[in-house]
Design brief:
21 helices; globular; single chain; alpha/beta; Rossmann fold; 619 residues; nine-stranded mixed sheet
């Protein structure tokens, strides 16, 4: 199929304006295909020609939070002449494998393999490892096993691993309190984890293997033998005092004959709380990394070469030849769709020829700040299931998110990503010439899919837990749902007083308070709020007779709104619309993980009934 479509031609992105080239690929390790992406400078100094930077991801939900920060760092470094390689561990992100396989030791092993691939491809003899959170821990451990690692950059590394996993469990407890669910003690959670083998943490399975593997590991005591140059970045909201665990780790590096610089960055909005997941960006962190690399790695006075770096375009084929398991057939292809103002990045899942079903393409559209993998790789799993059924599937990052370039919108319902969706439809239509296109959208992505109908024709829609209002209506709706009592309870704990120093949050809560009073005064029924855009687009869907599956949890914020709206439509007119309720659950957050499985199952069952031919009857 790849020979037919020539998909490898889309795995590169050239950006001459910013002096960089990017090449995405899958490489082999221990029978698994791991996703990676090179960020190459077009011009490099002599020192930079032999030195490259490998980045190590954090764990659990945090890659959703830090992905854009990682991309910003990698692209900024490449623009300054430093080649960078980013990758996903087995069972994580776009890579193959089960999340249970992502133990600390396997992540270290994957990092060593990434170094090998990077060094071989770029002809490197010196490596810098850059890790964020648990990725910093992995980087530190890998540095002790790989002699080519001479530099370390650790951003908020996890030093006391036992406390880290205890914090994860406490976060789960805090999340239950927020959602008014039953809570159990941390000790009971640990017992359940050991007895059952795993437990849900914010929609991700936390397995006992990684917890037991690290429970006795304290990096201030058991390591480090690293004796190179180290930058440790501490991120804090208010205090610039260096934490004891970070100071202790740096002291150990210095005792071994290395150097260690600690930089404290005050970033009030950048917190590692696991609860929310905006696409974090921090120019302070980017500039701190750049400055240190230029001072510690790039030798002064070395002339930049005028020669444009010659990229080996046969990299994917080269790595396939070196596959550790020649039976593995890659069916997922990285794709850059280059445009006039920005480029989109996605992964195209290609079905086996024997399973190919009428060239039907499913396009996944996530919520506004969610990268292409989605929470707990829900997007990856759904795409792979659909491909196994014979469908082409495409999942991608919106403008300004993940690997896509441009400036991200902030989730404004008045500014949907319709242009991105149209761009994807046009690209896939030209490439594959599909007979049918199905959109599968969650939240903001569902609204984006609905808005695309006035620009491009499609043949099916899965519409999951989306708002029925636009931006003004969302504020009105949220004001009546918001719990101000919970905010006031923060006053009981002095450590949370910083919340009341955030002017933006104070201003937003005042607006909500005023709107709530106004709603009560005019006796406004917020459950009937439906914006004209939503209504018009929905009726256009009915007019075009597009088969549609609507999925909401009965605890979703806009469940009553969409239910009242749909039930008011004449039953004959909405005969192509199937409305599915998930009783007693909040589908919108996709927490806990079983909600993801429920939604995936309902999607697959509906698509099977609508788009797959019935099984042949036995004579």
């Amino acid at each position: 199929m790849n020979e037919l479509l020539n998909l490898d031609r889309f795995s590169n992105r050239l950006d001459q304006e910013h002096n960089l080239e990017e090449n995405a690929l899958f490489f082999q390790h221990e029978g698994k295909q791991l996703f990676g992406i090179f960020h190459r400078p077009l011009n490099k100094t002599d020192v930079q020609k032999r030195m490259g930077i490998v980045m190590c991801q954090p764990y659990l939900i945090e890659p959703l939070i830090t992905q854009r920060l990682e991309v910003d760092i990698a692209r900024s470094l490449a623009q300054k002449g430093f080649p960078v390689f980013r990758f996903h561990y087995r069972g994580c992100g776009d890579s193959e494998g089960n999340f249970k396989e992502a133990t600390l030791s396997s992540q270290v092993a994957d990092t060593l393999r990434a170094i090998e691939v990077f060094a071989e491809q770029e002809k490197l003899d010196s490596i810098c490892l850059l890790g964020i959170r648990l990725g910093g821990t992995v980087a530190l451990m890998a540095a002790e096993l790989e002699k080519r690692v001479e530099f370390l950059i650790l951003c908020e590394p996890i030093i006391e691993l036992k406390n880290y996993f205890l914090d994860l469990l406490r976060t789960n407890k805090f999340s239950a309190l927020i959602n008014k669910q039953e809570t159990i003690s941390t000790e009971r959670m640990i017992e359940n984890l050991v007895d059952e083998g795993s437990m849900d943490v914010l929609g991700y399975p936390l397995y006992k293997e990684i917890v037991t593997e690290t429970e006795s590991l304290n990096l201030t005591q058991s390591t480090t033998n690293f004796s190179g140059k180290t930058l440790l970045i501490q991120v804090a909201a208010f205090s610039s005092k260096i934490r004891n665990v970070f100071q202790g780790m740096c002291d150990r590096v210095r005792e071994n004959g290395g150097s260690c610089d600690i930089k404290v960055i005050l970033e009030r909005k950048l917190v590692w709380d696991f609860i929310t997941h905006p696409p974090i960006r921090s120019e302070k962190i980017v500039q701190t990394v750049l400055q240190w690399c230029e001072e510690q790695i790039a030798a002064p006075g070395i002339k930049v070469l005028d020669k444009v770096y010659d990229n080996d375009n046969s990299l994917c084929a080269h790595l396939s030849e070196k596959s550790e398991d020649t039976k593995i057939i890659r069916t997922e292809y990285p794709v850059f769709i280059q445009g006039k103002n920005y480029d989109l990045f996605g992964i195209l899942h290609v079905p086996d020829k024997g399973l190919l079903h009428e060239k039907t393409v499913a396009i996944l559209l996530n919520g506004t700040s969610i990268p292409r993998t989605h929470r707990n790789r829900m997007g990856v799993r759904l795409a792979r299931y659909l491909t196994e059924m014979g469908f082409f599937t495409f999942r991608f990052d919106y403008c300004g998110l993940g690997e896509s370039t441009g400036v991200a919108e902030t989730g404004n319902l008045n500014q949907l990503h319709t242009q991105d969706a149209v761009k994807i439809v046009d690209f896939l239509s030209k490439l594959i010439r599909p007979t049918r296109i199905i959109f599968i959208g969650t939240c903001f992505g569902a609204r984006t899919a609905l808005s695309t109908l006035q620009h491009r024709k499609f043949h099916g829609l899965v519409f999951i837990s989306a708002p029925t209002v636009n931006e003004d209506g969302r504020a009105t709706h949220k004001a009546s749902k918001k719990s101000f009592v919970r905010n006031l309870r923060k006053l009981r704990d002095w450590r949370k007083w910083g919340y009341f120093l955030d002017f933006e949050k104070i201003k937003r809560n005042l607006v909500y308070l005023i709107l709530r009073g106004k709603n009560k005064l005019i006796q406004k029924n917020i459950d009937s709020l439906v914006h004209a855009d939503f209504s018009n687009q929905f009726f256009a869907l009915i007019k075009e007779e597009v088969p549609s599956l609507i999925i909401y949890g009965t605890l979703d914020e806009y469940y009553e709104n969409v239910k009242q709206f749909v039930l008011k439509i004449d039953q004959k007119k909405r005969q192509n619309i199937e409305f599915v309720e998930v009783a007693g659950e909040d589908v919108h957050s996709f927490v806990p993980a079983y909600i993801q499985d429920i939604v995936i199952e309902k999607i697959l069952n509906w698509i099977t009934l609508k788009y797959l031919p019935p099984p042949a009857k036995n004579n």
